[in-house]
Design goal:
The protein is mainly alpha-helical and 330 residues long. The protein contains 13 helices and no strands. The longest helix is centred in the N-terminal third of the chain and has 30 residues. The protein binds protoporphyrin IX containing FE.
Length: 330
């Protein structure tokens, strides 16, 4: 009886190992890691919007010198929750990288994306440490903080992009035939959107540190010589967003595919959320919603750009591949 049970366990275990080896469920797991990363980013925005960045003091990786804080304040709880989620997500990332390397052959695109995930993850952790140890948190409005904020958010976008690529290249591919113009547009849209994200994170910091009492007062401050640099830089973000949206919209016109349709929908939603954010004077819930829209928009754009920039051989040289297939079947 015991033997039969043991035999069953061994059989189940070897079945599981086989499934892991062939990568069954790997794309689903990558989608989960990507979704969890969006959650961690949104929690990061709550840390900033509520000024809880120093909730764990100038300690890293410990929280106020402790593994688990005793009698925490609200700010400590928010910052501690963020650190715990980042710790969990880092573990998920390591498992993802290891699994991709185990299940996918040498030269596979998903492996290349996984290497980038690893590199950007290390940079992200170091930048997080710079934020906390350099005390670029709470009410710090120095130019150095603006720079670190922009660099940190840019790296977050790149990490989100690399994770999207890992997931994208584990899924069944959608064939796209794209010319040179679409390829240039794809690069342009990616670059412009990174600038949109970085300037958005600076606008978010300005709204957190110098909230406007009304829409009119905010608009006047944007162009007042007496206002802090952070506030005077606020207008750059909507302007960059318009440039980014034109590039991405043009790309969608050139490449008609399912993901392009998603991107157009998310673009419209993001513009509405952006205008709503300004009109409502950026309350925390709206900032989180706008950031969620930005993440989804970025994921769709990276997926579309990947189809355009690194198409399958079949969609890159359609005539040649059809001729080759015909010769093979003849
Ligand atoms: C495709 C278009 C857009 C993208 C990808 C985008 C992305 C972002 C990102 C990533 C942030 C930083 C959020 C954070 O760190 O918490 C942000 C902030 C902000 N964005 Fe945008 N944005 C877009 C369009 C717009 C537009 C059109 C407006 C206004 C007309 C706008 C207004 C704002 C404001 C006021 C903030 C600061 C408050 C906040 O964090 O929500 N955005 N945006």
């Amino acid at each position: 009886m015991g033997l039969a049970v043991d035999g069953r366990i061994i059989e189940d275990m070897s079945g599981l190992l086989r499934a892991v080896r062939v990568g069954r469920g790997l794309a689903g797991y990558a989608a989960f890691v990507l979704g969890f990363m969006v959650l961690v980013i949104l929690e990061g925005a709550v840390v900033r919007a509520t000024g809880s960045g120093a909730g764990c003091g100038a300690h890293w990786p410990l929280c106020n010198g402790q593994v688990i804080p005793h009698h925490p304040r609200i700010a400590t709880m928010i910052e501690f929750a963020h650190r715990s989620l980042t710790g969990l997500e880092s573990t998920f990332f390591i498992v993802l990288i290891a699994w991709i390397f185990y299940a996918r052959e040498k030269g596979d695109r998903a492996r290349r994306a996984a290497v980038w995930v690893g590199i950007l993850l290390v940079i992200e952790a170091l930048l997080g440490a710079v934020l906390v140890l350099g005390q670029y948190v709470e009410r710090n409005a120095s130019n150095a903080r603006v720079l670190v904020q922009g660099v940190h958010f840019t790296n977050t976008m790149l990490l989100l992009g690399a994770t999207t690529l890992a997931w994208w290249w584990l899924r069944p591919r959608e064939s796209v035939v794209a010319g040179v113009e679409a390829r240039s547009l794809a690069w342009l849209a990616l670059l412009a959107t990174i600038v949109v994200g970085a300037t958005g994170s600076v606008a978010a910091l300005a709204d957190t540190l110098f909230p406007s009492p009304s829409f009119q007062a905010g608009l006047a401050e944007d162009f007042s010589a007496a206002a802090p640099l952070l506030v005077r830089m606020r207008w750059v973000h909507p302007a960059a967003a318009l440039v980014g949206v034109v590039c991405a919209g043009w790309l969608c016109l050139r490449v008609r595919s399912r993901v392009a349709k998603w991107l157009v929908g998310l673009m419209v939603l993001q513009l509405v959320l952006g205008v709503g954010d300004v009109l409502l004077l950026a309350p925390t819930w709206m900032q989180v919603l706008h950031l969620l829209g930005a993440d989804l928009y970025w994921i769709a754009l990276v997926g579309l750009a990947a189809n355009v920039l690194w198409p399958d051989a079949e969609s890159r040289f359609p005539a040649e591949m059809t001729a080759r297939k015909a010769t093979a079947t003849a």
